[in-house]
């Protein structure tokens, strides 16, 4: 039995096989690979895009999905041995074991709460399900977002072909709130695994991603003789890039502070992806996981330009997830 | 590619074809017309009846539906060129294009917020999806409610046969809150399109519907040599009516005021549909879209009487929606 | 047409037939018994386990389910003749009749609000649907929880075989909030119907269950020459028990008081099911409907021990509900 928790657990060849299958499913979307299979989609955070693409994908393969909206309503205990006299009415030990008797696969979205990063970086809810469930588990975004990674890689391969040696500019952008780092972590992991040269552009060292993802990215890059560069210099980052991936995220050193103290200063709005910056690149493609604030993260001209992959990447979520589902529980 | 946004876009013959198919589907409810088709049901406002009838109807035709509950959780930007530094995290341009890659049809419920009618009467969310989506769209109630119209017409035809020349009394009724005008607008459009004589009964001129719907109704009526009469005289409105349709709605001139200033005065409760008023009619049928407050909108005697069509009209939602789905994306 | 509202309406032989079918479905879970059938799952209170097991079960049998989340959003009027000028926008007369035109079965969860037990003990929402609906109805937990009863009986039979003459210790346990009595009522009804000797253990006479369930349990027990014993003595209750069923519930005499006055005193935590108490039994099995607070209701050692049936009982919800669905609307 295998899970899809992070691409770190999957080799480049295995990921490529998923991407190849996703391309086949894009051409021929409906079959019976999941006939009789039931999947629980468990959301501890809201979702529209992920929910829709999973539900449609499972139906396309002849399976059945149940959406469980646990956002705010199902505080789960994850600590072994806990005396449960607080908020939590249920322990993950029971939740995971019972769901495993109802369904053939559990997909989970559980963002960190950004209250205590030293604990949250261990992905405790996902880890709890992995420990106790007896069916395969898919990560629908926790501290990484591996389905988004595959969708990104698929879109990049569709445009660029082989990604080895291509330069990715992974740029932080402004957003008033301190967002989850998961997509940025994932873009770094996915790109380096495929042999891309990655430049991480962010306003200052406080915005650098957790070292466990930085080290993993460096390790993957090194396996291809590539590297990961961190810079705060916009021109350096965009210069010669083949692909620009934009995302906002919050500072890890501010986790746990009151939200009012964690809002991103407006003077960082100049990180917006615009035509001037894109002109520095090697005619780079542009992408961003959605949703995306227009004219804050990127200008309309970039978003609606011919090199924008945002819709294609979002569409690819459907195809890559079907490939993952097939790999884990397909007939 | 065709949408079902308002019956104004559909000719009388086309609407009749939908109604005829709905009657056939009422007899023989299950088939494979939507085999392999996926439909997103996007609710910006709560729904139980519409949601159930669409989900059941799509399943009856062999299709798959995904319910997206955006009520309060997904503020969408609809203005082109907006700098999105406010509440909205996503632009309708992306929402519509991405959903179009996941599904074959998008159905949308998006009530006006009744904050700014001059903008809201242009139905901006629905219009945004129409502009950007690449799949057919169904209106599940915005500023009109065309599915309710078809259900009403079907129930009236089942009882009255040909509706041409029949008199409809469309009566405002009391409700403490200023409700959406959509169903009233729609009842006017549908009835006049089928050649009914419509009398709109309301407490005063401030309750008259938006002139764009009044003018459309008059135009449709004129095509059949009929008319639309506005009256504040209860006896005149009920006199000789073949059908009474009841609905409450708020005053357009109060939109934007604080809610406390927009509550309907209790001294208008006398608009309730009761046996005394119904006795003035030509043994009229009674209907109301549901939900309906008993003994506020209409008395139990009327609601439960032999001429009440409320359950039949609600049931017909299922059948007419299946006819619309078949027309737009059926095999 | 038959409903599944309470096991009181079903004979021991009929319940055993459901349990026998559930065992067969546990071996062979998927078939076409509900092909073309549509079921509405109507939740006035949150649910994850019940929702999942019903949705999966209906899909396993080839049927289609629609989940209607009415929690907090759909105040229904249930009194005949009500002048509906309060919160409720719809009367159960319309809700039940309309849903009956859309689906072939309605399943309902509607907990008492514990504001007025003399009215709530008549189960007014469920009774309203029974009165007005024209399709079969399943109780998904109101003042009793008959699906949980069947799951409990199935798990007990799987371990103990014939239950006649076996001793069940039904023990109250601490929980800070005054919970619904439904599962306790149901455990009493189910066990006595199968001929078990039941000992109800609770802190004091104020915790004894509603007399209508106590009397029914005594009547069922008497039909087998058994009895129902009430005790506040822990040793007496556990002594020689073959099965221990744990559950917390609130005092009926405190219903209607402010919640702050209804919290369970912490000095009753000693009712926790632990190894010391279990050592008094006849190697009893342990069960509890889920969710369950670990180390509050029962210790980890008991919960994770070899005699714990909690996961098996939860799994059985799926199987017994499929048997009930088949009995009511199966082909």
From TrEMBL, chains A, B, C:
One matching Pfam family: OTCace
PANTHER family registered for this protein in UniProt: ORNITHINE CARBAMOYLTRANSFERASE, MITOCHONDRIAL, ORNITHINE TRANSCARBAMYLASE, MITOCHONDRIAL
Keywords carried by this UniProt record: Transferase
Function, as annotated: Reversibly catalyzes the transfer of the carbamoyl group from carbamoyl phosphate (CP) to the N(epsilon) atom of ornithine (ORN) to produce L-citrulline.
Protein name as catalogued: N-acetylornithine carbamoyltransferase
Aspartate/ornithine carbamoyltransferase Asp/Orn-binding domain sequence ranges: 181-327
Domain Aspartate/ornithine carbamoyltransferase carbamoyl-P binding as annotated: residue spans: 2-158
NCBIfam families in UniProt: PRK04523.1 (NF003384)
Organism: Parvularcula lutaonensis
Highest taxon in the source lineage: Bacteria
First-tier enzyme category under EC: transferase
UniProt entry tagged with the keyword NADP: no
